[in-house]
Design brief:
single chain, 286 residues, alpha+beta, Arc Repressor Mutant, subunit A, Aminopeptidase, 2 domains, three-stranded antiparallel β-sheet, 10 strands
């Protein structure tokens, strides 16, 4: 089978970059610690972090994180204690020595980055910055974690709140969600443990389902995550037995309307009493 040029380019970049930043060294950036331990130290940071957050942020299993934390605690850099906000969870915080090591790691990382880009011209640096920002966004978008959640899940509530806040900012007369209707089945997309996209499907009548509260974090727009979430919601609707999907939106949300039209949705007459809706769409699910 001929090589895929897309995966070949990504693998080539991985080989180039891991060598240049010293990821293959036993002592990352001369700190005396390998990359995995250094990365965990950096993620704990001056503010500390719960062990659960560290697992989700770095996508590591519990046993592996525990072993890395033991290395840091044995070195006197980290303390792991019950989380004051929830005694059922454990929280990792830096000791005074750990904070100094964190600052040293941050300084060494900055110095290496400066050395890597110093031979480039200003124009080349600008190109590199744009290219890396795009690559970072697209790789993160390709590796999101998608799961079905209950509407009362804390992460789902956080995503819904951000969705409502955006509508409040964008609608000319603001937005009042009132008492939100939690009926339906919802999907949550996360990256590094943080919500980046959300949406749900609820039954309307017969074989028709409705897309509700579809939201994508503003920082992630332009990476195709909105289109992917819409496709995932359509697949969810099919699993729920719907053969037709409908949705409503406000004319202010021009990007969403354009995406619906690109995705094969057709405008229809008003089908609900949503006071904020100004456009209604449907799509037959094959």
């Amino acid at each position: 089978m001929p090589p895929d040029p897309h995966t070949a380019a990504l693998r080539r970049f991985n080989r180039t970059y891991t060598q240049r930043i010293g990821a293959l060294d036993d002592s990352f950036l001369g700190t005396g610690r390998p990359l995995n331990v250094s990365r965990l130290l950096f993620e704990i940071g001056p503010d500390g972090a719960t062990v659960r957050d560290l697992r989700e942020r770095l996508d590591l299993d519990s046993g592996y994180v525990t072993r890395l934390l033991r290395r840091l605690t044995d070195d006197g850099l980290v303390e792991v204690r019950p989380d004051p906000a929830d005694r059922r969870r454990r929280a990792a915080t830096l000791t005074a020595a750990g904070l100094e090591s964190w600052r040293d790691l941050d300084r060494r990382s900055e110095e290496l980055a400066r050395r890597l880009v110093s031979p480039l011209t200003g124009r080349q640096r600008a190109r590199l910055t744009d290219a890396l920002a795009t690559a970072d966004l697209l790789v993160r978008a390709a590796t999101i974690q998608l799961r079905e959640v209950r509407p009362d899940d804390p992460a789902a509530r956080a995503a819904a709140r951000r969705y409502f806040d955006e509508l409040e900012r964008r609608f000319p007369d603001g937005f009042d969600p009132g008492e939100p209707d939690h009926a339906g089945t919802f999907l949550l997309a996360t990256s590094a443990g943080q919500p980046v996209a959300y949406g749900g499907v609820r039954p309307v009548t017969g074989d028709t389902g409705e897309v509700k509260r579809m939201w994508v974090d503003r920082a992630w727009r332009g990476a195709g995550l909105g289109g992917r979430m819409l496709r995932e919601l359509e697949a969810l609707a099919r699993r729920l037995g719907h053969r037709r999907i409908v949705l409503d939106t406000n004319s202010t949300l021009v990007e969403a309307i354009a995406m619906y039209e690109r995705s094969g949705y057709s405008r229809i007459a008003r089908y609900n009493d949503n006071p904020y809706a100004e456009a209604w769409f449907e799509k037959q699910l094959s």
